[in-house]
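User: Can you help me understand a structure? I only have the sequence.
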Amino acid sequence: MYRETIHVVADVDYAPYSYLGDDGSPTGHDVELISEIANNMRVNLDLRLTTWDDAINAVKTGQADVVMGADVIADDSGAGMLMTIPLTSDTMTVFGKESIESVGELYGKKIAVIESNGAKALLKSYMLDPYCTAYATYTEVFESVESGENDYAVSNYSVGLQILKTLQVSDIKSTGIVIMQNYFCFGVREDEPELLDRINTELVSLSDGGEISRLQEKWVGSSTNVQSLPDFFREHAGLVWLYIAGVIALLTAFLTITIISAKKNEKMLRRQAETDPLTGLANRAFAEKLIGSILQSESEAAKRALLILDIDNFKRVNDTLGHQQGDSILKSIADVLRKSFREADVVGRLGGDEFFVLMQGVQGKTNVETKAKEICGAVVKVCSANGSECRVSTSIGIALSPEHGNNFTQLYAHADAALYHVKSNGRNGYMIYSDEYAAQNAAENLLLDMD
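Assistant: Let's start by predicting it. Here is the structure, written out as tokens:
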């Protein structure tokens, strides 16, 4: 057993992604994936399957940390959550007993959808919401079409096929009408950005290792019953040679598009895994990794400085002005840092109201102190630029390399000690680490322990 537990919820009726197996235990693509992520993160997994509506509400109200099966596209269900990088994609399509050729033919028809789903919001934009009836589970959605209560069901393609197979229904089929392309992800509680970073890091690692592709093939590929080329040739031998040239041309075009799409998707996955979702700066996990690599490298710009910035009394901003204004101020501070440092420097967000910067090619202490003073002045001006009457400032702790350490752990500990000294002496300033401050901090901590 591990010390930490993450509480995860998912849709109980969402095969092949999450559902109850024959033995009554949770199973599916997402269940297998989150189990591996929890194992790699060395945390306990508390997994509960429920209706989709209850699942997303559990995350929004703080009863769960993660919901599986969320949609990357922001809609009502995604509000109040942080979204991980995409995991899989699936087409949202229309199922029914009668074929149709366009979305327009749905007007006046009775449409079954699932509650709190992106498709419901999209159908509203088509002005089809008056014809929609929402259900708690996908099984209920398809049962309503089978009984004649509704004319059509809107569902993810793989999910719809799995439900119809389970219900042993043969007269309902996909019409081929695509409502949208879904990109599935995990939704994380809004107040747990560090958990989001950790999960994203694991997802990129599993993607690089081919594990996500394996799960896609195992669960989604098998459920869609995609016909293989050998089967196609056997069933349509009379037509194959007639259209062989066209098939080759189409396959060539398809492969080209697939390769380009895969490269774009991989680039997007990496960018999202490395970026803090609020500020756009490097997130803690990626910044630490990058700084560690830089410190291990040998270069002419061997003198470096690690700055840790803490926004003074920021809790007061959130309490008096609200979290939305607080987030706006954090974004503005991130812009200040982005503009104040060079491209070679590493600027990241530790989390909450803390940031850190690795300056490269430092000429000396004066160079670092000048930059720290500049940042302190710029942060003070942030609130007025945001049209707010509040006042914020920043405290900065600084450690130099190689003088105070040659790896991230050493530099961080020394910069943090210097930051503590600044905070203890009135805030709104900066300090470069020295052994004198460290001894003073240790003595103060000892007195606190004795009290």
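Now, to help you interpret it: Residues 222-250, 257-262, 445-451 have pLDDT under 50 and may be disordered. The longest strand covers residues 173-189. Let me know which part you'd like to focus on.
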